[in-house]
Amino acid sequence: KSANPQWREQFDFHYFSDRKDMLDIEVWRKDNRKHEELLGTCHVDIAALPAKQTNCLELPLEKHPGSLLMLIAVAPCSGVSISDLCVCPLGDLSERQQIAQRYCIKNSFRDMKDIGFLQVKVLKAVDLMAADFSGKSDPFCVLELGNDMLQTHTVYKNLNPEWNKVFTFPIKDIHDVLEVTVFDEDGDKPPDFLGKVAIPLLSV
After folding, report:
1. Same domain, 131 and 187
2. Domain tally for the chain?
3. What is the mean pLDDT of residues 69-90?
4. Counting Cβ atoms within 10 Å, is residue 46 exposed (0-12), middle (13-18) or buried (19+)?
5. pLDDT of the residue at 20
6. pLDDT tens for each residue of 87-139
7. Which residues does the UniProt record annotate as the domain C2 (predicted)?
8. Which CATH number goes with the domain that contains 184?
9. Whether the predicted model's global pTM rises above the 0.70 cut
10. Same structural domain, 65 and 134
11. Which of 1, 59, 64, 169 is the most exposed place for a label (fewest CB within 10 A)?
């Protein structure tokens, strides 16, 4: 019940500079659990923003009254990676020993923000639901940790896809939950939901 809401949330998107990406933002209102109404949209050309600084933007909502105030920073990301199984980070024994030393008890107060990181190997899915009329799906997998998100490539026409990718996330809150969701790619339409699992970090 506010015309001037404040959210104060941070989202991290992993942007690769060889791509020309637009950040699409939608503002919605909820009447109840079933009814939602679009209050407006706006778009930001990421490539046009100055790098290594925080940009304060007031974005008018298209075709609707109101505006959205955002801070957007384009900066080199650290601790986040996507790799193939054959070049998996942490696969080298000496690297694992360095990490064990970095997080040993005597070094635990050296950097209070460096809690650690999570490495996830997404191997495959089995017996997915068929989302297409052909009896197949075009599945891809999205991993979310807090407000951090990474995803696999799409495997087309397959109910038993193999991704064989390794994802590395920095951990910002040990109470976060890793959410792994499988979607069916559907061209220009929003992807179809195929399933989800949630793994609390404290259970790992």
Report:
1. yes
2. 2
3. 76
4. middle
5. 64
6. 666 667 777 788 888 888 888 788 777 788 888 999 999 999 998 888 899 99
7. 1-59, 93-204
8. 2.60.40.150
9. no
10. no
11. 1
More reliable by pLDDT, 56 or 98:
56
Residue 95 lies in a domain: no
| C-alpha distance from residue 35 to each of 28, 65, 192 (Å) | 10, 20, 20
Which token pair is 165?
């990718």
How far apart are the two ends of the chain, measured CA to CA in Å? 39
Residue 30 is predicted with a pLDDT of: 83
Q: Give the DSSP letter string of the chain.
A: --SS-------B----TTS--EEEEEEEEESSSS-EEEEEEEEEEGGGSPSSSEEEEEEEPBTSS-EEEEEEE-----S-EEEEGGG-TT-SHHHHHHHHHHTSGGGTTT-TT---EEEEEEEE--SPPP-STTS---EEEEEEETTEEEE-----S-SS-EEEEEEEEE-S-TT-EEEEEEEEEETTEEEEEEEEEEEEGGG-
Under 8 Å CB-to-CB from 176, ≥6 apart: which residues? 145, 146, 200, 201
Determine the average pLDDT of the residues in 17-31: 79
Q: Which residue has the higher pLDDT, 14 or 103?
A: 103
